[in-house]
Amino acid sequence: MDEFKRIKMSSLLILLLQFTGAAIGQRNLYLSVRVGDEANLPCNSVIHDQDECDGTSWFFTVSGSTVELVRGGQIGNHAQSDRLRLTDNCSLVVKKVTEEDVGQYNCRQYNKSNQQQGSDSLVLLSVVTMTEHQNNDEVMLLCSVTTRAGCRHKVKWLLQTRDADKDHRDIKTSASDCNASVTFPTSHYGSTQRSKLFTCEVTADAYNVQTFSFQSSDGDDQAATTTTNTSGRINNQVSVCWLYLVVALVLVALLITIVAFITWRKMKGKEARESDSVVRCDVDDGTVNYEHIRPPDEV
């Protein structure tokens, strides 16, 4: 019975550690790309020993309909095929992204026997649109995110990496679901300044924070760039990993304490039973008799 309990406790510890590892390792990737730019969708579950990604397939799901984009490392024959390619690490590249590309992308791995290996690597792609509107003596910059499964993105405008309206009384900002605008007098910032100073920050979660530089509508040669808040992502990811690790260690310590307490109680009970039994030798016939001696009743 004791051995069976120890086996059950060990199994529980193993399951706990596996659950903790899975919670740390599995996470959806939210990727935002400007309309017309190139999207690089990483496959984080790639298995080893593949010949030109022959064990990799990519699926695109939108509005409940799924299309197999890549099978066994080969681009399929479909509407998007001329804009797709695979990289050496089996990532999927989508060229000249449009709003029709918004949706869920699954990277799935198969072994040589065509059996799926592990869980899918999931990428949720959204697109960012930035426009400029002039009204009399004011300019309004609008940044919006297009998604398929409801808006979870927080959008805001930055001026030189700080909130655009911070310490600027002549700048007005507003934000709603997946949209943000910034308005300022036309005389304050010319086209070149707008391209260099204003950026749109898109936050999907603690791991996915991206900024997009504004591209002026008058043909300014300032390229639209996308940067990812890597330091913030790493710091948040480390914090979450430490949180899971601490929780796991606390639970393990608690289980060990419970097991130790149960073992101690059993040992104390055994010692008490042994102390209650004494041996009396009968001198006359040489027999051995056991007598149980109980402590006198307390008054």
Automatic annotation (TrEMBL):
Superkingdom classification of source: Eukaryota
Gene coding for it: LOC117541261
Molecular function in Gene Ontology: MHC class II protein binding; protein tyrosine kinase binding
UniProt protein name: Uncharacterized protein LOC117541261
The keyword Transmembrane is annotated on this UniProt entry: yes
InterPro entries xref list: Ig-like_dom_sf, Ig-like_fold, Ig_sub, Ig_V-set
Single Gene Ontology BP annotation: interleukin-15-mediated signaling pathway
Domain Immunoglobulin: 28-128
Gene Ontology cellular component annotations, sorted alphabetically: external side of plasma membrane; membrane raft
Keyword Glycoprotein: no
Signal peptide location: 1-25
UniProt xrefs under Pfam families: V-set
Gene3D superfamilies xrefs: Immunoglobulins
Transmembrane portions of the chain: 242-264
UniProt KW keywords: Membrane, Signal, Transmembrane, Transmembrane helix
